[in-house]
Amino acid sequence: MATPLHIASLLVHARPELFEAVKANLHLLDGVELHQQSPLGKLVVVLETVNEQQILERIEQISNLPGVLNAALVYHEVLSPEEAAE
Question: Which GO terms of type biological process are on file (predicted)?
């Protein structure tokens, strides 16, 4: 049986002087996509996971990256396996 796909969007605020390092570290995490950014150190990050627990774990990982000031969940959607395949 196929599992649903969880899509979550975060706003990540990083120290501007460590912004490039934060982005490089985010690229190393599975299921993380960077979509928008501001030179002031703000990023829109999208997560794709198979359950809510993975979202919480990823938010904690991102929050603990050097240079990250805050990571806030702003959107969460669950797609059925059929919707995810489209």
Answer: negative regulation of protein transport
Side by side, the strands of the sheet bearing 32-38 are 32-38, 42-49, 5-14, 68-79
Q: What is the pLDDT of residues 17-59, one digit of tens each?
A: 999 999 999 999 999 999 999 989 999 999 999 999 999 999 9
Percent of the chain with pLDDT over 70: 98
Domain range spanning residue 78?
5-85
Enter the DSSP assignment of 4. P
SS3 content of the chain, % helix, strand, coil (to 5): 35, 45, 25
Tokens read off for 52: 């809510």
Total domains in the fold of the chain: 1
DSSP state of 56: H
Listed in sequence order, the DSSP H helices in 1-86 are 19-27, 52-63, 81-85
